[in-house]
């Protein structure tokens, strides 16, 4: 059951990261390690307070 969800999440993350027209040097990629696998999060500069708060954890 987790395999289709994991595949969907990975495909969505791949699409978001690769199809973005934004300047990739301005945004931050964060990898979260869990017991069920890794999660990659893209933090945009459009939300600077949220980005700063997340990166300060």
* Principal-axis shape: flat
Total of domains: 1
Biggest β-sheet, characterized? Answer: 2 strands, antiparallel
Q: Radius of gyration from the CA trace?
A: 13 Å
Number of helices: 2
Order of helices and strands: HEEH
Give the N-terminus to C-terminus distance in angstroms: 32 Å
Helicity range of the residues? 40-55%
Number of E-state strands? 2
Q: Assign the structural class, choosing from mainly alpha, mainly beta, alpha/beta, alpha+beta, or little secondary structure.
A: alpha+beta
Spatial strand sequence of the major β-sheet: 1-2
Low-confidence stretches: none
Mean pLDDT: 78
Proportion in β-strands: 15-25%
Which helices and strands appear, and what pairs or packs with what?
Blueprint: H1 2-19, E1 28-34, E2 37-43, H2 48-55
Antiparallel strand pairs: 1-2
């Amino acid at each position: 059951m987790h395999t289709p969800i994991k595949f969907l999440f990975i495909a969505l993350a791949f699409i978001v990261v690769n199809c973005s027209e934004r300047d990739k040097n301005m945004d931050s990629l964060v990898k979260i390690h869990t017991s069920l696998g890794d999660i990659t999060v893209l933090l945009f500069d459009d939300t600077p307070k949220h980005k700063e708060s997340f990166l300060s954890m």
